[in-house]
Amino acid sequence: MHFSAVIVAAGASSRAGEGPRKPWRRVAGRTVVRWSTEALLAAGAAPLVVVIAEGDEANAAEALAGLDGWTTVVGGAVRAQSVQNGLAALQHQPDDLPVLIHDAARLFVTEAHVRALLDALDGAEGALPALPVADTLKRTDASGAATTTPREGLHRAQTPQAFRLSVLRRAYAAWPAEAGEPTDDAQVVERAGGRVALVPGDPRLMKLTYPEDFAMAEMLAQAPMLTRVGQGFDAHRFGPGDGVTLCGVWIAHDHSLIGHSDADAGLHALTDAMLGAIGDGDIGEHFPPSNPRWKGADSGVFLRHALELIQARGGRLINVDVTLICERPKLSSHRAAMRERLAALLDLPIDRVSVKATTTEAMGFTGRQEGLAAQALAVVQVPA
Ligand code: MG
What we know:
- By secondary structure, this protein is α/β, with parallel strands linked by helices.
- Helix content is 29%, strand content 29%.
- The longest helix is centred in the last third of the chain and has 13 residues, at 265-277.
- Magnesium ion binds at residues 234, 236, 259, 265, 268.
- The site of magnesium ion has 5 residues, from strand 13 and helix 8.
């Protein structure tokens, strides 16, 4: 995913009780600011700017040690000024690059959140996660007496909030001083006339505000995840043609592979492995060969769909391992390109993607070069 990010960690933490300010406290052994910085970098944020309070440079360097791809800028007296300082640090980025503005105090942002926001940005000037208000709302008057207030149509706004850089910059430039301080960035875009879309919020995007929130965050941080493994196998027959597509990479050859889609056995085996890890059927069930829509289809679509199914369960892909089995074409010189393609399709670092190739020593159907086969493993983590 292609986006930039501004993480705001410059607040005074005035409601959070004793101790260091929020960004520099630890939850489950990691500093608050490190949680979302790690998550957004892993989701592909580039560049990523952390807005810190003056004098916090050493705290940031210590908290984010070992991570690559972040810089810091010093924030302002109020949140809106801190965000604008973060945007100023992105001044050389393209106008249409999405930017996610995120509160450091919301630790548990995931790739799935980011993907939903970027998708929503296709049809709106801004997008944010929001939770419908579920509790009955009471308003108190000066005497403390309570009356009920309707909750219909009310939502709790969370972060990250997504915009195009130019849209957010223009909106801040147009914000009238007499309007006071905006309480989030979407409000600034709304005021400038932009359409803001809501994507489903997540209780895990809770904001650390009060001392008791830290205990809740500790519990969430230790929420048990199950590690699950899936395996897949696929084979396709050779037919006339001038090349094959394997793991998303075109390889010139004196035959092609026969199949309803692009016959990419590597991606088919891997898609089945990912579906297997979450117990969600197989590729033929999700993409029936009887459906003409999948004729000649790029099998990357199947793989992405399997990834989205994992993420929809709150899960994440940990690593994949594909073995391609054929005598010819020779694959060793294409392995690096196949790994890169898989890493891009799956939003994974390259060291969590393996592609191997082997032969069957001239035995069997791959040995006779009637076709080729692929097998794959996928490891995922999903909430227990
Ligand atoms: Mg197949």
